Amino acid sequence: MKNSLIYTLTVLGFGLAGVHADIREDFSSYTVGHDLTTPLDGGMNWSGDWTGTVTATVSDSAELDSGGRYLSYTATGSATTSLTRNMLTTDVDFGENHTFTFDWRPDALDSSFNNTSDRYEFYNEDLSTGENGSFLFGIFGASRGANSTGGVFAAYDRGTDPVETFSGDRYFDLLDGSLQPLTVVAGTTYHITVDVRPGVSEWDLFISDGITTVFRTGMTTWGAGNSEEGFGLNLRGNTGSDTRTASLDSIAIVPEPGTMLLMGIAFCTLVLFRCRKVTFKP
Ligand SMILES: [Ca+2]
Ligand SMILES: [Ca+2]
């Protein structure tokens, strides 16, 4: 009887942990050359297709570190262009702690990347309202404000100010352990990790080129970060001839640590069960 209870708890623990599935995209389900003109709707647990005003094409010609097919996206001109995708709230509870990871590579960073309006940007938001996002960061061709230098990763840290008072001065360069920023280099794959803690409106950002990791932790989310969310990447130039090109791969959005807690319950129950078995040995 007790053993069946332990079994039930174990199954329940692992079962509940499995309720919140990960959201993933590695572009392996598409053929090379597939672009936004035919729905890019693969991956796992997304609620819509990849959409946007950039040109985006699945490629395998210059794999990122993680390998296999990836999405190459590009835009020319001074308008802000975007690549976005909606995520299901039933698969990741965006009111609970969760982590975004993805690989990203800038493929065009020439001398035209020279102005604060020259941008590669990353964010999440409620795509219907453009609000309630949690993270916002980017690379700018020149200083975005008082706390960024340009040409390096900079993250938006709202601090204690209201959401509405957006200011470029709240972009802060990410720094390594020696307080140095990481100059962004074309052709380098960057491994990006975003931890979001909606309960306390905080987020952390870690970016590694495989050798150096720059980061900023304990930032205030730029929005509430608690509604159905879209993952987004923007491109922008400051002149009509500016071309931005980048590659994206190996995206995972994973809930935590609620899942880890449930897994822990299941694991502890199993340990208890095994200990009992040992105790009852003749
Ligand atoms: Ca891939
Ligand atoms: Ca420019």
Q: What descriptive keywords fit this protein?
A:
about 280 residues, binds calcium ion, alpha+beta
Examine the secondary-structure arrangement and name the CATH architecture: Sandwich
Structural class of the secondary structure composition? alpha+beta
Uncertain residue ranges: 8-18, 277-282
Number of domains: 1
Question: What is the topological layout?
Answer:
Blueprint: H1 2-19, E1 23-25, E2 51-52, E3 55-59, E4 70-76, E5 81-86, E6 98-106, E7 119-125, E8 136-140, E9 153-156, E10 171-173, E11 190-197, E12 202-208, E13 213-220, E14 230-236, E15 243-255, H2 258-279
Antiparallel strand pairs: 1-15, 2-5, 3-4, 4-15, 5-14, 6-11, 6-15, 7-8, 7-14, 8-9, 9-10, 11-12, 12-13
One calcium ion binds near residues 26 and 66.
